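User: Fold this; tokens only.

Assistant: Input:
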Amino acid sequence: MAPPDPAYVVDPADPRAPSEERWACMSVEERARVVDLLPPAEKHLAAEAAIAEERKRAEAAEAKAEAAEVEKQRAEAEKQRAETEKQRAEARLAEALAELEKLRGR
């Protein structure tokens, strides 16, 4: 996809906010310039688009944090299971060694 023209032009006879695709390609400064050129209703729509975009980013960050927390809990549970298994194995080894010593002693 080719990048859009560098400057977005608002037609005074038919003022419209840029497309979502175009908006996503704009810098913060360019967005501010375009919003300043729009009539109040269009400014409202542009602001809503910006809010929706920020909400998506926040939701994505929250989902990522939640996934990381779930992974951390899974890893902790796995670590606990491994520690329990290690303790059981050590106990079985101690029992086997004790039994071996008994058998050698006879």
